[in-house]
Amino acid sequence: MDLSSPEMKEIVEAVQVLHRGAKAEARARLLALWDQHSANGARMEMCAIAHFLADTETDAAEELEWDLRSLDLATGSREAEDLEPLAPEFESFLPSAHGSVGNGYRMLGDLERARRHVGFATARVGVLADDAYGQLVRGGLRRLRIGLGMT
């Protein structure tokens, strides 16, 4: 996912607002971008937007719904299966996507589905670089695996 592309610039700016703690403002921006990119079918942008809209939700079921949308945009499926990405640029996103979905199921008490998605995420971490993003995803998955008794 090329975060420096012009298409991703506004999304990155909205995510920065989210990370500064202005959840309502970030949500409003991301929803507007969702509408904009949905109209032109920009799958990569929509995938990123859905992934971060999940983080603006206060309800676990709604958070999971956005994460499932993001996974569906990357793989063509919302199911607990490990599918190949629809395009190569989604490959490095799948560990995070499956991890987020797994965490959503964990929060809702569906530990079987949570473990399946965390397993898929863990199996795909090899595609991640050893950079800040890769370390962030690996650390999150490590904590999820411990919390789910998968160690």
Overview of this protein structure:
By secondary structure, the chain is mainly α. It is 69% helix and 0% strand. It is globular.
Shape label = globular
Rounded to an integer in angstroms, the radius of gyration calculated over CA atoms is 15 Å
Q: In which range does the helix fraction lie? A: 55-70%
Question: How many β-strands, per DSSP?
Answer: 0
What is the number of domains? 2
Number of helices: 7
Name the poorly predicted regions.
none
Helix and strand pattern: HHHHHHH
- Amount of beta strand: under 5%
* Spatial separation of the terminal alpha carbons: 30 Å
- Mean of residue pLDDT values: 94
Class by SSE composition: mainly alpha
Q: Mind summarizing the main beta sheet? A: none
Which features does this protein show?
single chain; 151 residues; mainly alpha; 7 helices
